[in-house]
Task: structure prediction
Amino acid sequence: MRVVKKIKEMKKIADQLRKEGKIIGFVPTMGYLHEGHLSLVKIAKRKSDVCVVSIFVNPLQFGPKEDYHTYPRNFKRDKKLLTALGVDIIFYPSEKEIYPEPCLTSVQVKKLSEGLCGRVRPGHFEGVATIVTKLFNIVKPHIAVFGQKDYQQAIIIKKMVKDLNFDIKIIIAPTIREKNGLACSSRNIYLNEKERKEATVLYQSLRLAKKMIKEGERNSERIIKEMKKLITTKSSGKIDYIEIVDAKTLAPVKKISGKVCIALAVFFGKARLIDNILVQSG
Amino acid sequence: MRVVKKIKEMKKIADQLRKEGKIIGFVPTMGYLHEGHLSLVKIAKRKSDVCVVSIFVNPLQFGPKEDYHTYPRNFKRDKKLLTALGVDIIFYPSEKEIYPEPCLTSVQVKKLSEGLCGRVRPGHFEGVATIVTKLFNIVKPHIAVFGQKDYQQAIIIKKMVKDLNFDIKIIIAPTIREKNGLACSSRNIYLNEKERKEATVLYQSLRLAKKMIKEGERNSERIIKEMKKLITTKSSGKIDYIEIVDAKTLAPVKKISGKVCIALAVFFGKARLIDNILVQSG
Result:
């Protein structure tokens, strides 16, 4: 296992690997790894000859009032976890290495970035698309794995790769949950014991929505109403949004048909948690 | 010489060339080639093992009232010219090949895109940066050559390559002029005989500006005033803009110092001509 901190070195390694005909698998992360990340890494490893994981907390994708400075970091622990999994390269650049001068260039994916988290986090997905483009140009992977928990992000990256003709296969991997259903997230560290218990209501509400659809309900508003009721009666969570959108276009759906994504963002204390579920409506 | 129309084929060729360690030189064009383009091709050829020229009139970079539909095209002639120069590959995709579905992704280079032509052609440089990113991902060049005539474009692409960590060396090649000083441009075809003669005043005005700076003038306003006077008294040209900007940041300069770019856009009939000159002021 090798830790690479310089862009030039990472590019050189990637070029050499490509010359040798090796398949590069890539998992971009912001570190503070949990079981969700590790599942992505396992998939990337299975599908490639050389597995690269990047760890970089990207300031561009945080709003001015968001948690960039307090975002949890623990490289030592991350390194141990990735070494145990047999990762080949950790790309771990400094902020100065990635942004040596003001970055005037940005990559935007219109429409897909406008709803859901995009509405409440302006600039977030622009920051994500820009750093992912940079990382793709540095790591030069054949395959990259993203988690379904950040569903909007994964769909945006997929579209970006298609639109910009990147030669990269994007894999969206299932959300990993704790036994009680809570989706793994680095931000779960912000939860106290009570909030952590209460936050299990999020997945319960998503399952309730799925059950309603499976039983024939097609009215999004009615489903969202029931979800809100469940969350607010069973927890102290403050709902940021709950939406039902088309799984491909991410456009809000009033009358459910085809494949939909039920997505939510809820605050528990200072932690903003997101989760979603995909449902084929029949 | 090979004409490649499909993205998949172009990528495959590029991958193979890179595996073989060949240097790919690239000149992106919109076709209807003139001596300016040919000079870029000659430079690309000199600096590479395999020279690729793309011909694609990119709808994204034209405004709704601009000349996308009437932009001159003549592939047969272009092919002949490029074959004579010993170009290895012409990448000549259809619009459907490049935009098979709505392109939601765009690449923007802030600040540098805001002044000069960017002010009067909103969305133009976004269209340019997006298509160039696509072409870079398809042709995978080591070197790409752009003309100084489109100076703002060249500076934007340079910054984009740096910001997005593309592994591509951008070369800015000198403007090629007719004997009378008129900068070569595909849009010169729009000029009638009288306009073509009159348009030589543009380069005269740039040389006047350079002379004034060399003789000690440091006030941009006074220089621009003299240029305007020359253009309007000696021609029917309608000035779109004349600006003196910092050669690196493209920020307008009131008091000239360091290296500046004197840039202009002037309409002759329906042809909007641009030209510029770089001057080291001291």
Q: What stands out?
A: The domain at 2-173 of chain B is CATH 3.40.50.620 (Rossmann fold).
